[in-house]
Amino acid sequence: MHRSHRSRTTNPSRISIKSDLPLVVEPRPRYSPAPNNVLFGGPSDARFGRESAASRAVPQFEALRPQPPDELPELAKQTWRDVVSGFRSDWFQGSEAVLAAYCQTVAIERQIAAQLSKCSINDKSWPKLIRLYTSTVGTLINTATKLRLPPSTSRDSRHKKHVHPGPRPWEVDLEPEAG
Predict the structure, then answer these.
(1) pLDDT for the residue numbered 101
(2) pLDDT tens across 72-90, in order?
(3) Quick check: is 106 in a domain?
């Protein structure tokens, strides 16, 4: 007779536990990332303690920020520089054409707003200008959302979006230099 080589397993439904205590099976807690801690800048940057002078001495390299295209008017170029300087250096990588369209739309919106400020509601051109203005602002909002510029488009604490405006409190040397 040939027997199959099956491992001996016990059917879990047949296990009997002899105890007066009820069997309580609690699921294991799921892994949850550290809460967003303002002191450390979020779970992706969680460093404990102060940053040492040696680690601050190591140069931090960033990708180069994209430069505005030459064909943009000066107002659009200034908008480009303002927008790009407020975000991580790699935030617009691959979406430079959309950013150029956004900056161009900002320049157009400002020109239409200047025209609107010159005329009154009773002027003949007012309805046409106001339709053009609202359409341009709608395009501006849509393009800004595609670029994830508004805060509501990236509430994820795991990805830093904006450039920190200055040194963090623990990075500032409070001791005066002896001279």
Answers:
(1) 95
(2) 999 999 999 999 988 888 8
(3) yes
Residue 116 belongs to what domain range?
87-150
What would the pLDDT profile of 11-59 be if each residue is shown by its tens digit?
A: 555 545 555 555 444 444 444 444 443 344 444 445 567 777 777 777 7
115 within some domain? yes
Tokens of 164: 């920190």
Structural domains of the chain, count: 1
